[in-house]
């Protein structure tokens, strides 16, 4: 027993001589009190390494990142002689005072623990402590999706003290903007990191004013993927709907099939573009505006054929009663005697007189006639205005509808595209 006690005392002396700070840890050190307790605040310098940003969710409006958080502060109770630094076992963190730093707006966070807890403690001779952690966190990021997918999002990573206010703790960046490393090397699937910068701020709460460090970075979305997936197919569907302008009005099945097919395809494309976003998202996005424009042009091409075909059928129906009897008379002219000719002439003359009287009575009625009653005058004026409006919108030559549509639809679509891309890219 005496030999074992002597050996233990020798090992304790060797540990104490190699690292005198251990003696402070075991003798008179209180981990529940911060350094400089009751005096000046502790200055904690921080630095970050962004290992990865694994996902950015528009539906949940957050991003998930893995970071290396490094904190440095000086504890005069751990000063020892020499100019060396020692890396301690991470489990010794339980014996030391550490800052109560937390990530603001964090939804989920965890500390990696394979194969052991990913923490590092390094002690310097002047009492400086380096405390490093590897953390994966999901942080909220308020996004403005009104220009989606040509948008630029600004996200933040904020570090704040939970319990110690500015009278106890002061947060600073270790090297200013250079305190953040790795973010410029990130390769994201849909985004490109445009810029980033660091800020020092304070959070005013009911319990006091707390120090806060902010890392703010801007992410620009890569629009090429959406051009190939959505913009090009929708534009081709609009151009496909214009094919019906080169088909005659009599080809009802062909033109109807093209119109209905393009409308249904466009509807499917619009539903697919919104499936990746949250159903509760109320933003009117840039891609929704473009798909709405394309859908309007496709639906307009279908309506154009309906108007042209209706006008053509009305014109044919108006010509039918006039041309039918004339053809019959020309065919039966040889077998008709003079009496029938005279009788038919008298009958047609009487009809003309009756039609003329009807037209005069309907179109040339003087609505200001003193013998007419007030409600009859009002009906007369309204009837005249309705006749004028109907005659103004009546298409005299239905074949000109397709002729003008071949030029106006592509020209107007190009003009709308110029305004659309100019607004969402430069404003």
From TrEMBL:
GO terms for cellular component: apical plasma membrane; chloride channel complex; synaptic membrane. It is a multi-pass membrane protein. It is found in: Apical cell membrane; Synaptic cell membrane. It comes from the Eukaryota. Pfam families: Neur_chan_LBD (PF02931), Neur_chan_memb (PF02932). Residues 230-315 form the Neurotransmitter-gated ion-channel transmembrane domain. Keywords: Cell membrane, Chloride, Chloride channel, Disulfide bond, Glycoprotein, Ion channel, Ion transport, Membrane, Signal, Synapse, Transmembrane, Transmembrane helix, Transport. It catalyses: chloride(in) = chloride(out). Signal peptide: none annotated. InterPro entries: GABAA/Glycine_rcpt, GABAAp_rcpt, GABAAR_pi_TM, Neur_chan_lig-bd, Neur_chan_lig-bd_sf, Neur_channel, Neuro-gated_channel_TM_sf, Neuro_actylchol_rec. PANTHER family: NEUROTRANSMITTER GATED ION CHANNEL (PTHR18945). Belongs to the ligand-gated ion channel (TC 1.A.9) family. Gamma-aminobutyric acid receptor (TC 1.A.9.5) subfamily. GABRP sub-subfamily. Heteropentamer, formed by a combination of alpha (GABRA1-6), beta (GABRB1-3), gamma (GABRG1-3), delta (GABRD), epsilon (GABRE), rho (GABRR1-3), pi (GABRP) and theta (GABRQ) chains, each subunit exhibiting distinct physiological and pharmacological properties. Pi subunit of the heteropentameric ligand-gated chloride channel gated by gamma-aminobutyric acid (GABA). GABA-gated chloride channels, also named GABA(A) receptors (GABAAR), consist of five subunits arranged around a central pore and contain GABA active binding site(s) located at the alpha and beta subunit interfaces. When activated by GABA, GABAARs selectively allow the flow of chloride anions across the cell membrane down their electrochemical gradient. Pi-containing GABAARs are mostly located in peripheral tissues. This is Gamma-aminobutyric acid receptor subunit pi. The lineage of its organism: Eukaryota, Metazoa, Chordata, Craniata, Vertebrata. The gene is Gabrp_1.
């Amino acid at each position: 027993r005496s030999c074992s006690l002597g050996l233990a005392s020798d090992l304790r002396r060797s540990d104490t001589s190699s690292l005198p700070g251990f003696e402070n840890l075991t003798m008179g050190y209180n981990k529940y009190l911060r350094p400089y307790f009751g005096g000046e605040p502790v200055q904690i310098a921080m630095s970050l390494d962004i290992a990865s940003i694994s996902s950015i969710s528009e539906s949940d409006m957050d991003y998930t990142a893995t970071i290396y958080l490094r904190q440095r502060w000086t504890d005069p109770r751990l000063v020892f002689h020499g100019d060396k630094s020692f890396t301690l076992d991470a489990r010794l963190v339980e014996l030391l005072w550490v800052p109560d730093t937390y990530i603001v707006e964090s939804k989920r966070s965890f500390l990696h623990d394979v194969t052991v807890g990913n923490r590092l403690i390094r002690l310097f001779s002047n009492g400086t402590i380096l405390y490093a952690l590897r953390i994966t966190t999901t942080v909220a990021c308020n996004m403005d999706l009104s220009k989606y997918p040509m948008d630029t999002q600004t996200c933040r990573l904020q570090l704040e003290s939970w319990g110690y206010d500015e009278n106890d703790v002061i947060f600073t960046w270790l090297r200013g903007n250079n305190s953040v490393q790795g973010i410029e090397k990130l390769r994201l699937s849909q985004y490109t990191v445009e810029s980033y910068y660091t800020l020092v701020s304070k959070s005013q709460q009911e319990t006091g004013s707390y120090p806060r460090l902010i890392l703010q970075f801007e992410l620009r979305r890569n629009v090429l993927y959406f051009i190939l997936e959505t913009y090009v197919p929708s534009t081709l569907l609009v151009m496909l709907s214009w094919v019906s302008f080169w088909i005659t009005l009599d080809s009802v099945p062909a033109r109807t099939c093209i119109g209905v097919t393009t409308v249904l395809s466009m509807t499917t494309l619009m539903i697919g573009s919104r499936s990746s976003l949250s159903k509760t998202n109320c933003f009117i996005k840039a891609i929704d505006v473009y798909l709405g424009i394309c859908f309007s042009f496709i639906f307009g091409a279908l309506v154009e054929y309906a108007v042209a075909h209706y006008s053509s059928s009305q014109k044919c129906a108006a010509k039918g009663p006039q041309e039918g009897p004339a053809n019959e008379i020309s065919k039966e002219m040889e077998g008709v005697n003079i009496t029938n000719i005279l009788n038919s002439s008298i009958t047609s003359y009487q009809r003309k007189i009756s039609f003329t009287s009807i037209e005069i009575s309907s179109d040339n009625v003087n609505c200001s006639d003193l013998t007419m009653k007030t409600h009859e005058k009002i009906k007369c004026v309204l009837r005249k205005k309705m006749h004028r409006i109907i005659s103004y919108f009546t298409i005299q030559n239905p074949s000109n509808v397709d002729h003008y549509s071949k030029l106006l639809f592509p020209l107007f679509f190009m003009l709308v595209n110029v305004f659309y891309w100019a607004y969402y890219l430069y404003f």
